[in-house]
Amino acid sequence: MTVEFLDLAAARGARGSVKLPGSKSISNRILLLAALAKGTTEVKALLDSDDTQVMLEALKRLGVNWTRHPNSDDYRVEGVGGVFPVKEADLFLGNAGTAFRSLTAACALAGGHYTLTGVPRMHERPIGDLVDAVRQVGADIRYLGSTGFPPLEVRPVSDTGGSLVRVRGNVSSQYLTGLLLSAPLLGREVVVEVEGDLISKPYVEITLNLMKRFGIEVKREGWQRFIVPAATYQSPGSIQVEGDASSASYFLAAGAIGHGPVRVEGVGRNSIQGDVRFAEALARMGAEIGFGPNWIECRLGCADKLHALELDCNHIPDAAMTLAILALFADGTTTLSNIASWRVKETDRIAAMATELRKLGAVVEEGADYIKITPPARLIENAAIDTYDDHRMAMCFSLVSLAGVPIRINDPKCVNKTFPGYWDALASVAA
Ligand SMILES: O=C(O)C1=C[C@@H](OP(=O)(O)O)[C@@H](O)[C@H](O)C1
Ligand SMILES: C=C(OP(=O)(O)O)C(=O)O
């Protein structure tokens, strides 16, 4: 039976601890790297969600053997050493940007005939900058629908391509990530130059970090030039997936909204995910943050209100949505800027946020790349929040219930994109 909405009762606060699901960004990168590598990789604590399931299924269709160990989120992936064994396949990638963009580059350079499709929203998410880039190294890639958007068809790469690729980085960093991950498939040194500003830089750091774990070290000059050596990925043997830092943001925010303390387990001080810097923003709003090697904790402390914030959120595009909810509990107007990429993600997140925040009584101003939120004196109770098939909309708005404000979340199952256990985790911290 489909649950069409979820009524969240008013809770008196939040405290406790949550074990985070694996990072989506790390899981999907590791799956592709392990698939392309020489040797077998044991992957520990992979995220089990829609976005990783589509990646696993696509790899299986490309001829990559993997098995899941019984009763666990641990997998064994048998690397194919740079060449997908199956030369013709149709891949369905849902709305998983990390899977779609990285597999587009991998399939385009892997020497087969493939189609890549997704859900209707995926077909509205731009991919032209990546297609333009892989064409420069000889990829034969066509649009099956509108120019610049999925679905795509790729055919075997020709040998006429060069070794210098220019890619635009101001719409999504996933294009550069896709290119970097697959550049070693060309068997020659490749220089990648970024045109214009690169957004969401910490995600490219995750890419470089994991490529290194699989034996390929990229040299870079700032964020403009990347030199990928001619080499084959080598399995590291075994690799652990960190807990998801974007998923952590909901529970850290819960610790601030519901007084806390709330602890997340699975990410900590040495995380390679940029979204751990959400904790810095929370601290600037007045929450108390503690960091351990593998945990982060948040409580409101002596403050009884959060401070409003003005923040350039380009480095934390996903966790920044959680700040928009915290703004409802702040003592003034919060401005989140440099978030144009929100408009081309699971939904137009600036428009969706503005519409739904207004249902709670907030005064919201939106621009092409910013949102400004002024909270009402009292939040409106029992608002029915539309989630636009966007997991983060559902998780963000659920937090309001922890401040004693009952709320209805429409289509709560959309959390399955990255966090199928979210509703149980939320109930476990609600006081
Ligand atoms: O590379 C990644 O894993 C991601 C990059 C970001 O996208 P953009 O680079 O499009 O901002 C982020 O929003 C997405 O959830 C995951
Ligand atoms: C933007 C997101 O996902 P993706 O681009 O990987 O589909 C997200 O998880 O917030």
Automatic annotation (TrEMBL):
Catalytic residues in the record: 318 (proton acceptor)
EC number(s) per entry: 2.5.1.19
InterPro entries: Enolpyruvate_Tfrase_dom, Enolpyruvate_Tfrase_sf, EPSP_synthase, EPSP_synthase_CS, RNA3'P_cycl/enolpyr_Trfase_a/b
Signal peptide segment: none
GO cellular component: cytoplasm
Annotated PROSITE patterns: EPSP_SYNTHASE_1 (PS00104), EPSP_SYNTHASE_2 (PS00885)
Protein location: Cytoplasm
Chemical reaction(s) catalysed: 3-phosphoshikimate + phosphoenolpyruvate = 5-O-(1-carboxyvinyl)-3-phosphoshikimate + phosphate
Occurrences of domain Enolpyruvate transferase (ranges): 15-426
Binding site for 3-phosphoshikimate: 24-25, 29, 172-174, 200, 318, 345
Keywords, ordered alphabetically: Amino-acid biosynthesis, Aromatic amino acid biosynthesis, Cytoplasm, Transferase
Record GO biological process: amino acid biosynthetic process; aromatic amino acid family biosynthetic process; chorismate biosynthetic process
UniProt GO MF annotations: 3-phosphoshikimate 1-carboxyvinyltransferase activity
Metabolic or biological pathway, per its Swiss-Prot or TrEMBL entry: Metabolic intermediate biosynthesis; chorismate biosynthesis; chorismate from D-erythrose 4-phosphate and phosphoenolpyruvate: step 6/7
CDD domains, per the entry: EPSP_synthase (cd01556)
Coiled-coil regions, chain positions: none
Gene3D superfamilies linked to this entry: Enolpyruvate transferase domain (3.65.10.10)
Entry binding sites for phosphoenolpyruvate: 24, 97, 125, 174, 349, 392, 417
Database matches in PANTHER family: AROM/DEHYDROQUINATE SYNTHASE (PTHR21090), PENTAFUNCTIONAL AROM POLYPEPTIDE (PTHR21090:SF5)
Function: Catalyzes the transfer of the enolpyruvyl moiety of phosphoenolpyruvate (PEP) to the 5-hydroxyl of shikimate-3-phosphate (S3P) to produce enolpyruvyl shikimate-3-phosphate and inorganic phosphate.
Subunit relationships: Monomer.
Record's protein name: 3-phosphoshikimate 1-carboxyvinyltransferase
Species this chain originates from: Sulfuritortus calidifontis
